[in-house]
Amino acid sequence: MKYLDDYRDGEAVRRLADAIDRAVTRPWTIMEVCGGQTHSIVRFGLDTLLPKEITLVHGPGCPVCVTPARLVDAAIALARRREVTLCSFGDMLRVPGTRDDLFRAKSEGGDVRIVYSPMDALEIAVNHPAREVVFFAVGFETTAPANAMAVHQAKARGVRNFSILCSHVLVPPAMEAVLAAPDNRVQGFLAAGHVCAIMGWEEYLPIAARHRVPIVVTGFEPVDLLQGVLHCVRQLEEGRAEVENQYARWVRREGNPAARDLVREVFEVIPREWRGIGALPSSGLGLSEAYADFDAARRFALDDQSEAETDSGCVSGLILQGRLKPEECPHFGAGCTPEHPLGATMVSDEGACAAYYRYRRSEREVPA
Description:
Layout: H1 2-5, H2 10-23, E1 28-32, H3 35-44, H4 46-49, E2 54-58, H5 63-66, H6 69-79, E3 84-88, H7 102-107, E4 111-114, H8 118-127, E5 132-139, H9 144-157, E6 162-169, H10 171-180, E7 188-192, H11 193-199, H12 205-211, E8 215-218, H13 222-238, E9 243-245, H14 257-266, E10 267-274, E11 278-287, H15 296-299, H16 316-320, H17 352-359
Parallel strand pairs: 1-2, 1-7, 3-4, 3-5, 5-6, 7-8, 8-9
Antiparallel strand pairs: 6-11, 10-11
Helix pairs in contact: 2-13, 3-17, 8-9, 9-14
């Protein structure tokens, strides 16, 4: 709550919490899909402001967290090749594979570089034509346009020493998987505003209709999130199941047509494995045949040679599905910390466990 005291719209947040309290008459469970939203909720204590009837659970909205160990292993294998420069965003370096992580590969002499854009990786390839430069392309629909542009530019400019190791995942199939689970308790969703800024929100219409759940496209500020909760609660109380757009200042129904067209040109929809969840059909993006020459998995013949993951006791899969909260894990804050993580949800800046560790761990959970 100390962060909310410093928040510029703290009074507006409290008024929204009061409005939710007046609107609710029975228990409801609502899932926020995006890890950035999770961090905002935990940081500002928004869930503690809500009436006891409202339960917020955290969904699989962290692409780093759901990247399968076998793809992390593939990135590590590439980083250990003498001719390869492996480029990645910084939060992937500590994500555990089956045995090691990219930090270990870097410490052992691998050419692993942190970049801030896939275009940075492309420029490294342009400036070092004797190196094979691979960008570890991880993300939801939000980062897909930038990764598509890098591949598109590489082809247009004839840069043959650039490729991507693709681990893109799509939000709607994950929502469907949550709703289809036999023990599902989610009754409404806060959809990720940045994903919808790219893709629009029409693809959520059949999900809302099929499963009879309200879906509210929501931003990331505390005011956005509580407005999203209020819209969702009002729908639930009135028996409606519609898609609403709380984030209208950034999101249009059709999204960003130019970005969508580029993504459709460069990528195609494929099945994808989600760490902690399993294989989901039509839930990922892979390079289309027209851009297959820039697929690192093909270029380097990366067969799946990963070992089975050892049982670390990590319950991140249950956390990603909204079945448990981080503080319910027996290892949280003791055996599992950001410095010594058991799972990806403690590593990523958008991971639920990282959010709880940063903002909510008690004194007894702080490691000595």
